[in-house]
Design brief:
By secondary structure, this protein is mainly α. Helix content is about 75%, strand content about 0%. The radius of gyration is 27 Å and the shape is elongated. The chain starts with 5 loop residues before the first helix and ends with a helix.
Amino acid sequence: MYTFSNRLKITAIVLIILGAIGITSGFMSSDKTYEEVEQMLAAESHHGGGHDAAASHGETKGHDTHKAETAHGESHTSASSHGEAKGSHDKVDEHRKHVEHVQHAIHNRPYSALYIAAFFFMMIALGVLAFYAVQYAAQAGWSPLLFRVMEGITYYLLPGALIVVAIAVFAGDHIFVWMNPDMVNPESEHFDKLVYGKKGWLNTTGFVIRALVFIGGWSAYRYFSRKFSLAQDEASDNKNFKKTFRISAAFLVFFLYTESMMSWDWIMSVDPHWFSTLFGWYVLAGMMVCGITVIALITMYLKGKGLLPHVNDSHLHDLAKFMFAFSIFWTYLWFSQFMLIWYSNIPEEVTYFVTRIEDYKLPFFGMLAMNFIFPLLLLMNSDYKRIPWFVVMAGLVILGGHYLDIFNMIMPATVGDHWHIGIPEISSVLFFAGLFILIVFYAISKQPLTAKRNPFIKESEHFHY
C-alpha cells in the first residue's frame, strides 16, 4: 500500500503557495488604467523606433490635407479646416479605441492563464476516466494492475471540473465574450447579431446547468465504478465486476455526447463566431493522450518506489503505444480540421488559423512539433517504449505540447496579439500542478494498489508482449 510521503506533500503545498502568489501578482499587475496603458504603448512605440499605425495613418492624412489646401487655394480654407478637425477627431478616436483594446487584453490575460491551467489538469483526469471505462467495457486483460492508479487520478475530476466552471463564471466576458449582456442587446453599440442568434445556447444559465449535468454524470460513474472495484476485492464472486462492466458501457455513450458539448461550451465558445464539427473529437484526442501519459508517469513513479511489483516493461510498452497512437490520432484530426478550413478559405472560418499563424507563431508551430514530431521520433521504435526514462522524456514533451494546444485555443480569442508566457501562466500551472499532486496521491494512498479480485488480475500480472 502506498504512503503519501511528506516530501511529496511539501512539494505539492509549495507549488500551490508559489502558484497562488504568482496568480495574485498577475491580477494586480494587470489592473492598469487607461493612462498607464497609453504610456506603455508610447514607450513601446518609442523603443520600436517609430510611430504606431494609427499615428502614421493620421500623419499621412494630414499631409494629404495640406496638399489639397495648396491646390485649392485660400477660398477653401474653411472647408479644409473642417476636414483637418474631422481627421484629427478620427485620429484621436482611433487611438482611444486602440488603447482601450490593449487595456482589455491586459485585463483578460490572468483570467485566461488561470482558466487554461485549470482546464488542462481537469482534462487529464477526464481522459483517464474515459480510458478506465474503455478498459472495463473491453474487458482488457493487460490493464487491471493499473486500475488503482487510474482511480486515484480520476479523484481530481470533481473538484477540478467545478473549479473550471467557477473560473468561467467568475471571469465572465473576460474569457467568454457572449457573457457580456450588451452583445445581445440590439440597442447597444456592442450588439452582435451572430451571438444574438446563438443566445438560446450561449447564455450563462444554460452554461452552468449543462456543466452541472456533465460533471454530475462523470462523477457518478467515477463514484460507482470505484465503489464496485473496491467491493470486488472482498467479494467471492464477480457480480461487482459485471456491474462495473455494464455501467462502463453506458457511461461511454454518455461521455461521447457530453465531452463534445463540453468542448463547445468550455473552449470553442470563447470565439463564438467560429465553429468546427471536428472540435469535440479533436479535444478528445488531446485529452486521451494527456491522461494516458500521466498514468504512465505515475505508474513509473510508484514502480520506482518498489510498489506495483508485477508491473513490467510490457505494461509500460502498451501505455507508450497508446501515447503514440493517440498522438497520431490527434495529428490526423488537427490536420483534417486545418486542411478543410484552409482550403475552403471561407473568411469566417479561416480567420481562426490566420490569427494563430500570424500572432502565435512560436506556440502554434511549437505545439505541432511537440505533439506530432517528437512523439513520432521518440515513440516510433518499439524498444524505446520499454525504457522508463525515455517514456518520461516523451511524456513531458507531450504534456507541454498539449498545454500549448489549449493555450492556442483560448488566448487568441481573449488577449489577441498581446500574449506572453510569464508569471500568470507559469504560476497558474504551478498552482494546479500542486493541487493535482495533492489530491491524486492522497486518493492513491487510501486503498491497496492492486485490484486483487479482478477476474483478469492474473492475466495482467503475467502480461508479456
